[in-house]
Amino acid sequence: MGTTQLGQGKSQQEAEVEEEDGIIKYACLYNGVNGLYLHVFPEKERSVPSMVTQTKKLCVKPPTMLPGIGDAAWYCEVEGDFMSTMVYKRGHGQIRFAWVYLIGETRSDVYETMAKRLAERL
């Protein structure tokens, strides 16, 4: 893919699309580990509730749920002082899981806006 420079020494890197066990993985990294990730799972033999239960285990504190966005959405602090905004949405025989992974904390309305935008595009 490509790299775009963002100011002084900052960059955006779109990773190669990966496929593993029927799961398609997309990633766009900003300045290293900050990034936007999307995984597309075949819905067969999977459920959003069970996937959500597993994903919430990444949170180091209880997640803040964002009701009414996708099939499930929340934000939480994860290891290393990172914050994640996560959205699950079903459609076309797939479960789509997107998350934004950023260092540091910001206002709660920012996480909600990110989640809404992710859900609109999934």
From TrEMBL:
Name of the protein: Uncharacterized protein
Top-level taxon: Bacteria
